[in-house]
Amino acid sequence: MKSIRGMLALLTFLILGASALAAWRAWDARQQVLAVEAKMTSSMETRTILLMMEELPYFDETLRRLNLELQRIDNDERRIAFKDALDAYAARKPEKLKRAIRSALRAESKYHEELRRQRAVIEDRVVKFAGLAWGILAAGLMWSLLAINTLIFRQLRHLSRRMLDFLVDRYSYQFSNPEANELGDLQRTFNSLAQKVINTMDDLKRLDSAKSEFLSIASHELRTPMTSIKGSLSLLASGVVGQLDTNSLRLIKIAEGETDRLIRLINDLLDLAKIESGNLPLNCQWTSWDQFCRRTLEGLAGLAVNADVRLEQMSLPQLEVNIDSDRLQQALTNLVSNAIKFSPKGGTVRISVSRARSGELIVSVIDQGPGIPPRDRDLIFEKFRQGTTKENPLVKGTGLGLAIAKALVEEHGGGIGVDSEVGVGSTFWFTLPHWRENADRLAA
Questions:
Q1: pTM for the full model?
Q2: Residue 399 has pLDDT above 80, yes or no
Q3: Would residue 157 be called left, alpha or beta, if left means φ above 0 and alpha means ψ between -120 and 50 degrees?
Q4: 138-144-149 Cα angle (round to 5)
Q5: C-alpha 409, offset from chain centre
Q6: What are the residues whose beta carbons fall under 8 Å from the beta carbon of 226, sequence distance 6 or more?
Q7: What is the pLDDT of residues 91-128, one digit of tens each?
Q8: Is the Cα dihedral 436, 438, 441, 442 positive or negative?
Q9: In this model, does residue 392 exceed pLDDT 60?
Q10: Are 354 and 364 in contact (CB under 8 A)?
Q11: CA torsion 192→194→200→202, rounded to 10°?
């Protein structure tokens, strides 16, 4: 297996090794420069001694020190010239000493010039190797970044795109053959997980399809007998078979109410089945918003009176919407009826209309109820789910009203949501993309 860690470690070792070698060569050359400069200093000291030799008085101690200086000189030509000068000094022959000093000074000048040229060559070598060391580091850094991008980031971007596909529900694609390295192991793990997700999604789709089919068949089979039971109970309550006593009549009324609730549940299940299967065509027409909203509120007037809740509507005679009136009225009825159920006595439920920045029409149903806790705001639009409060642990209902409202609004091309503050109230809203008005601007 081609380990990314091993490849990066090898690359780092080669870069650091080459750079360290060049740096060592530069350091060694610098030490040579220092050695040459030390020799140049020693030559200058010898030159100074030669210039002073004629003026030195003759003492045995002076002669001893000059002999020590002679032993320190390592160049043969310089040593011979200096020894001639020393012999002339020891013999106390001034003329010979002058000639010997001039010859020694020429030898020192020649030696000093050679050292200067040697130092220049070695200094060039220092600069060259130091530059080479820095160049290797810079090139190595660039190669390392390129290798990291190729070996790691490019594969991570590829894997990230695959993960984003899952976030947008694009589960079907051909899995590529991962490379034999650490990121390949990660991709193989992801591919295994993705395959399990795909299999699970297929199983869930089959189960959901079977569930929808079962609900549809069960609802059809239940609606006919439930309608018959409803009719029979109504006949009994009307006294067709004779007058009933008070207790019997009360029980029949309870049974009749529960039958109505079951019939509504069956109708809701059938509507959901039709929407999910795509068999709920919309008959959209341009409709006056005021008339549409008024019809909806009139149908809920009895429920509002019983709950002691006042219904209000924003009047917009110029506004028209392109909707299927029956279907959207069902969605708005579900929202308003929920608002009535959760509103306190003497409260108000208000329907308002505004325009979004995107140009869509926003219809809002505002109540003064207990509000919806944050944990419930996402789940209330799911099937068979209801929000709960301390005052109303579970309001009696099927748990399908908001799910149907959401499905119907989305069939119209809109969206639905809720804004709520616990203890203040809730605002359920939905958007309609197709609307028009005759006035210059929409009052909001």
A1: 0.50
A2: no
A3: alpha
A4: 130
A5: 31
A6: 259, 262, 263, 266
A7: 888 888 888 889 988 998 999 999 999 999 999 999 99
A8: negative
A9: no
A10: yes
A11: -120
